[in-house]
Amino acid sequence: MRAAIITFPGSNREVDLARALEAATGHRPLSVWHKESELPDLDLIALPGGFSYGDYLRCGAVAARSPIMTEIARQAGRGVAVIGICNGFQILTEAGLLPGVLMRNKGLAFLCKPVTLEVATRQSVFTSGYEAGQEVVFPVAHHDGNYTIDAEGQKRLEDEDRVAFRYKGELNGSVGRIAGILSTGRNVLGLMPHPEDATEPLQGSIDGKPLFASLAAALG
Amino acid sequence: MTSSDSSAITPKTVAEHGLSSTEFERIKEILGRAPNLVELGIFSVMWSEHCSYKSSRRHLAKFPTKAPWVVQGPGENAGVVDIGDGQVVVFKMESHNHPSYIEPYQGAATGVGGIMRDIFTMGARPVAVLDALRFGEPRHPKTRHLISGVVAGIGGYGNCVGVPTVGGECTFHASFNGNILVNAMCVGIAHADKVFYARAAGVGNPVVYVGAKTGRDGIHGATMASAEFTDETEAKRPTVQVGDPFTEKLLIEACLELMARDCIVAIQDMGAAGLTSSSFEMAASGGTGIEMDLDQVPLRETGMTAYEIMLSESQERMLIVLKAGHEDEARAIFEKWELDFATVGHVTDTGRMVLRMGGEVVADLPVAPVSGASPVYDRPTLPSPKLLPIMGVTGAPPMDVREAALKLLGSPDIASKRWLYEQYDHLVRGDTVQRPGGDAAVVRVDGSKKGLALTTDCTPRYCEADPFQGGMQAVAEAWRNLIAVGARPLAITNCLNFGNPERPRIMGQLVACIEGMAEACRVLDFPVVSGNVSLYNETDGRPIQPTPNVGGVGLIDDLARMTGLALPGEGFVILMVGESAGWLGASLYMREVMGREEGAPPPVDLTYEKRNGLFVQGLIHDGLVAAVHDIADGGLTIAIAEMCLAGGIGATLEVPDDATSPQGWLFGEEQGRYVLAVKPEQVANLRSRGNEAGVLVREIGRSGGDALNLGGHVPISLDEMRRVHEAFLPDLMQAA
Question: Which residues of A touch B425 (CB under 8 A)?
Fold first, then answer.
């Protein structure tokens, strides 16, 4: 599997993501600076967590206008797998590659803790390694993870089986306790929790491993 | 008046700069003339207590600072210690007390930013932050506002920069009502052959300014940090700097990228006293001079004077001496990261700092006397009165053992700090292998099986009751916490927070604490490699409890042998290493249950401490223990309750018949003790190892069930303990 991690000014979980991808695939992912405008042939494009542009305007809003995003949209349109975690998810919604928006947490505070999630669908290259309905523990670390979408949009996500992960309990005010969603083509995943920080026993959970393993299995 | 005009310096101007008339005379002697305003400003910050350590310097020399594993002791931006495999750990702790009281969010945020710069300045990637926080009484009208601002500020900065905040302390006492303490510690990892220092060298080498632009914020921050608070301090809000963690993140990445090349001669962050201290310190340590053209300094505001440029404490700025000819290479890196880059001067061999602006020389000062010849005071000291020991409880205690245990579990100093650390990203980088809430945080060294154990410790009530014993205890507790997670303690940093040193009683506290700490460091082979002093922590004449915070760093060679405090399951035998005599003086039981702040603190016997600690270290190394916890605030009962809560399993404790006072045995705070959980088949072996080592190992109970049974008292269910333990901070912060 040929994977690339896109780094924006202010990305900060690219190290964690690279480590998890390398452990699953045996290859170090390519590191791509956001000012690039072309990507080589890839199987996976990954947008890491962090605070791109300091979250100063609106999380992900400035990064979504980076030169690389046009290329990512083109590749996603061709069916290349794209994963955006935390700030990466925010960037994907701001870029219009995923619907909805991530608002400030309902409790208004930053939240960093392990949370229990439910795998809501296994129909994707990201989640095929889980059982449907399986409970997994990933940590969250975000201030703006309150997934918001209008009723019609939410219905569409549910009807099309595009909710990938759901919080087991109320966490941050997200509509339908949604923690992660898929694009209509099912090749773009955005999620707030951090599977990349749940891949080793020392990290307290290995529940994130199947996600990277599914990718490695599906994308070769 | 122009800034280079010396005629307008009046005694009032001198006093406003926090300089005494004697100090002003000394300045005139050094210069052979009166200084102009720019020069006076430079002297005032360089000779401030904050930058010059003029009250503490002669006593700081008492700290042991050397060991075979110490690469760099005090005197640089941070201490450097060898951790094997060609790597070093770089760390330091620093205060941001005064700014955090005036403007808690920005004060705490810039405290975190400042200490991170001290670490990456030396070529180290910051990997962890810890914060030692001391607030006033929970019910004091300002406390909630201060907690909420400080916690949001630490989180807002650290989370964005992507350095995990993994530990620290948070305690409360009325003496901090008008003067909170915010001490931040940062820890980084570097390659041993890629450590950078602040020594300007090479005549003609360019002096380069990078990072954020200079504004008017923070002018005279160092001077403010060196004065007592009064009711008018609020008016000093403009002297608090404003942090920009996004720029800091870019600065870290740009500096580390540049450091990977062979371009840098010297590098120094612009911290307290900004451009002034960074340029003077680099020239002084290199024995050189520097000429700077202030017209080249990137400015955020128009019309800034030389005085303002030199004294600004705008954040996220660095000064670098480059190897000549490498400017373009360096500029390209900073442009990539969208940061300012300006050549502002060059290194000279004159030993003088010459500053030009608008074609005119606005300051011309000899470097060495400004940085090195600040006055050093041997201030008079007065010892604290000796207090009497208090053993056990005489007469009827105000509440029974069960109630007392719950009261302590929910008391501000012991209660869970989850509300706070869940607002900090303590997991970013994926190497946090022991999270907040244990004895010490553990951060894996990226790509290895090694871990760094990190802790901050101090018990201000002990330091107030007996500064010498309290000083020893702060170091001993840090050492013990590192032992408890399976680490080899390496070295400490410290941040000494005290009141006004011009008062002999306070100066006596400072000196005795330093001497106690130094003694403990010597006996425990735990040298001091960096530190910071914060004096004048008083409001309207009311001093804080003396608080010499210790930041300890240890190394775990193989994380497979790391230990934690959680009881691992049913049927484990609980052992205590060390003995209880019932010492309740200066304990939390005395304060929270008896309602009295009385008595001498538990004495520290360093030989005993070391013997017990090395014994436990040996057991962990040989894989004989399943859980370890040190005994500290609230004594044995709280130690076991914390082990139960962490493991989600109950325990039964036998109170020995020979205990003179059950309260003393259960809640006494004797030092040098540990609780161990071991498999039953290991008990005989551990006892005989204890006999051989001359260490007392006593079987005190067993794990199991879903409640804590203390002797014959009514059991306390895990649920009730958890509810009480978790309630304090959320209740306080949600109170209307």
Answer: 110, 112, 141
**What contacts B578, CB < 8 A, 6 or more positions away?**
B608, B612, B631, B670, B672, B673, B674, B695, B696
Question: Quick check: B281 and B192 in contact, CB under 8 A?
Answer: no
Does the residue B342 lie in any domain?
yes
Cite the active site residues of B. 50, 96
Tokens representing B175? 């003496």
3-class secondary structure, B83: coil
pLDDT in tens, B437-481: 899 999 999 999 999 999 999 999 999 999 999 999 999 999 999
| Chain B nearest C-alpha distance from A75 (Å) | 25
Helix ranges (H only) for A1-145 are: 14-25, 67-77, 87-94
Residue from A162, A169, A172, A187 nearest A118 by CA: A169
Residue in B99, B142, B102 with CA at minimum distance from that of residue B234: B102
Helices (H) and strands (E) in chain A, counts: 5, 11
- Best residue of B427, B450, B452, B733 to probe chain A, by most A CBs closer than 10 Å: B427
Which of B161, B421, B433 faces A202 most closely, judged by CB atoms? B433
Is B92 flagged in the annotation as binding?
Answer: yes
Nearest to B428 among A13, A55, A204 (CB): A13
Contact A15 B160 (CB under 8 A): no
**In angstroms, what CA-CA distances link B546 with B62, B181, B278, B539?**
18, 11, 30, 14
Total domain count for chain B? 2
Class of domain A3-219 (CATH, top level): alpha beta
Contacts of A54 in chain B (CB under 8 A): 160, 244-247, 249
Q: Which secondary structure element, helix H or strand E, spans residue B482, and what is its range?
A: helix B467-484
Q: Which ipTM did the prediction report?
A: 0.96
Pick the closest to residue B480 from B552, B549, B542, B432 (CA basis). B552
Indicate which CATH number applies to the domain containing B630: 3.90.650.10
Q: Confidence band (pLDDT; 50, 70, 90) for A128?
A: very high
Per-residue pLDDT of B471-495, as tens digits, reads 999 999 999 999 999 999 999 999 9
**C-alpha B239, offset from chain centre:** 23
For residue B2, what pLDDT band results from cuts at 50, 70 and 90? very low
Report how far residue A174's alpha carbon sits from residue A211's, in angstroms, rounded to the nearest whole number. Answer: 22
The β-bridge relationship of strands B451-457 and B488-497 is: unpaired
A152 labelled catalytic: no
Note whether A68 and A36 are within 8 A (CB).
yes
Residue A40 tokens read as 């080589």
Assign residue B297 a region (left: φ > 0; alpha: ψ between -120 and 50; beta: otherwise): beta
pLDDT digits (tens, 9 = 90+) for B140-181: 999 999 999 999 999 999 999 999 999 999 999 999 999 999
Question: Do B127 and B396 contact (CB within 8 A), yes or no?
Answer: no
Query: Between B89 and B13, whose confidence is greater?
Result: B89
State the amino acid at position B27 in one-letter form. Answer: I
Under a CB-based contact definition with an 8 Å cutoff, are residues B256 and B120 in contact?
yes
Domain with B333 in it: 196-371
Domain assignment present for B605:
yes
User: Shortest Cα distance from A53 to chain B (angstroms)?
Assistant: 7
> B156 contacts in A (CB within 8 Å)?
110
Q: Given the DSSP bridges, would you call strands B441-444 and B432-434 parallel, antiparallel or unpaired?
A: antiparallel
Would you say A43 and A3 are in contact if contact means Cβ atoms under 8 Å apart? Answer: yes
Distance of CA B243 to the CA centre of its chain: 19
Asked which of B336, B371, B406 is the last residue of a domain, the reply is: B371
Question: B423–A111: do the CB atoms touch at under 8 Å?
Answer: yes
Measured in whole angstroms, how far is the alpha carbon of residue A2 from the centre of its chain?
A: 18
- Backbone dihedral angles phi then psi of residue A204, each to the nearest 5 degrees: 90, -10
Residue with tokens 């809430």: B437
Q: Which of B371, B402, B436 is the last residue of a domain?
A: B371
Q: Are the C-beta atoms of A13 and A48 separated by less than 8 Å?
A: yes
